[in-house]
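Anyone? Bumping this.
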Amino acid sequence: MGGRHMVRGTEERVFQIVVAAVLSLCGLAALFPLLYVLSVSLTPFSEVLRNGGFILIPRSITFDAYRKLLTESNVPQAFGVTAFITVVGTLLNLAVTSLMAYPLSRKQLPGRNLFLMLIVFTLLFSGGIIPTYLVVKSLGLLDSVWSMILPNMVWSFNVLIMKSFYETLPEELFESARMDGAKEFRILARIVLPLSVPVTLTIGLFYAVGHWNEFFQAIMYVTDRELFPLQVIVREILIQTQQPLENAENMTPTETLQMASVILASLPIIVVYPFLQKHFTKGMLLGSVKG
Amino acid sequence: MIRTPRMFRLMAVMLLASGLTTACGSNEGDSSDAPASGSGPSPSAPSDSASPSADSGKVVKLDIIETGNNLPPPDKDFIKRELDKALHTDISLTVYASGDDYKNQLNVRMASGNFPDLFMVPDRSTLKQYVQQGLLLDLSPYKDQLKAAVDFVGEDSLKKTSFDGKVYAIPKAPNIPYNTYWIRKDWLDKLGLQPPQTIDELLSTAVAFTEQDPDGNGKKDTIGLTGSKLSAFAPVFGAFGVGNPGDFYLSGGKLMNSLYEPGMKDALAFINKMIASGSVDPELMANTGLQHQEKAIKGQAGIVWIDWPNLSKDQFTEQIEKVNPNAEWIQLAPPKGPGGQNDGSFDIGGSPGIYAIPKALEKNEEKLRKVFDLLNYVSTKDGSNLVQFGVQGRHFNLEGDKVVPTDLMAQEAGFTWLYQFTGRPEKSYLQVKFEKQASFIDFADKQPRIQTLNGFLMTPDGYNAADANRYIEEETVKFAYGKRPLSEYDAFLSTLETSMNYKSFLDSAFQQLKELGYGN
């Protein structure tokens, strides 16, 4: 018996090692392009060219590209716009989403199924670009930061995740709160929200990443360059080498500059992720299992 | 993960929208053939000064959109400042780096009635679509008020933007050709070769560049010829006296389509020989954007079909020098062949840009006048100099009529072309802005080329140009790469004519060109 245990033990260990090896390979494969981007962004462009365009570990380091981006381009301005959209947008998103999810999680809500149907309906069908554009236009939102925040205040899918999470809270809590004289708003603020930190953070992250990557609405609704978010500016920098010559005067940004802009655009989100990770997995899991 | 569904949604909606706009357009379309006479003051004196109308006490906001990049923020945009000062306007120019984004934006705005006051039309099929939907202002009645602009681009150029005798947009002043073969002089010297003068020499040089280690690093890591897709062989087609596949042109006074010339088969056979020799960039068909340029700069290729800016501008000569201080690129006259000597083809019907005014502006006389003022201003001396070179005294000085650039021009005035709504006198402009490259500009401009007429053509209904062009490209590539024997060339043509409706396009094209006075 002991022998079989031993065999199983080694089998187990071999399995573990194989899994670890495969996973670290995958991890490396995912890291590889990132490392490449980082290295090129730090290497003087002449060095990049001399190496046939491929650099993994920079031999000489320069921050020229970053300095150029931060002082001579629209990037700082765009950073501000994106930060505003992300912070204000996410806060509003969370407020509206939880206000919507909470009543829907209560079985007593009259017409609950109807509301749910309506919400699911928007998951499957949408008004489309031009009608949305017309709405945004007639609300006078064109060319304002709010056009990148208000049209997407709620993602139906996130409402459903949040609703499922709220449903997992024990009914007794609500009863006792009510017994103590708390009304719905107080219950939401004092009981539900403090107990739902994981799901709130997870969904907040979804929203925040969405806002950080804001591109499409900006292209559609904003014509004022000062209001362009980061991704639009970064894309402008990146796309110039991918198009055939339109005008002899075009200055093509060097690869170093392009890669630096990519790093600048993704760094903040990369930095935030690890801190939210533990809530993230928890929030996802709870939402999905009990859904 | 968010993008893809959006794209689908977008596509679906565009479909829907095009239906909608067609409906709306036709309603409004007929109502107004408003004659221009009587509306607005008589055209300002046709003299050069084209001074903005004197009655303009009020500042008018003009919303303009186009593709482009590197537009500085409004507070640093001295062209906007000068134009606003001269014209009493508040110009708000928005540029889109990506052509696709621009098309989306433009379509949405046209569909929702939120028209810009002046905008670039992305291509001729869009122009046709907008004209049919009645979205564009017919400029013919206003020709007098646009005299300066029309004179600047040339009355003849308006053919490019006319339908049924009505002018719907202003094309920019014509371009000049930029492309030639460029070859590594130091590689030729190292291998003891002369610049190739015939297509056979071109082939043997390309082979030598591939086989004989011209960069002397002991590795067989160089390629002979590179370029972007089949255009890399433009001079080879030219050497057989034919344009690129699908080009229309006059050959001995007769209208021709290159696909139907006997030389086309011979050209494809020769290209096949070049490719089979292994001296052509194996990634040729996969090169996008400026990848061929990168290969040239990095010292991987010895001959490249490219425009002069991308190999001779200071930005790139610096890069070339950093990779290899001995590298020396020279331009190559088109190699001779059985059909003569042509550096590919150049579309005399093409325009570097087309600008249109929405029909809706008809009702806003004040704005319309300002748009006309703007177009006229950038087409006459002061305004044209401004959008070409920058601010006089700061970016350039005038010595007599000669424009002398200052150091600041290169530093600050790189974006002014965004305001060249009617274009510029191409050659003199380039030679001022690119003084160091003047000889390359001149060389590229002087090479003999087949003058193609495709730019004048309107696609007939029922003919899908995108599909047909893709088919032509796919099949010619197969012939060039020997994936399909040339004995099937006639079968290819008949499939093209029937399945792709090319026959109706051919008939219509010849008809249109004859009406414009080409051929007989």
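Late reply, but here is one note on the structure posted above: Chain B has a mean pLDDT of 86.
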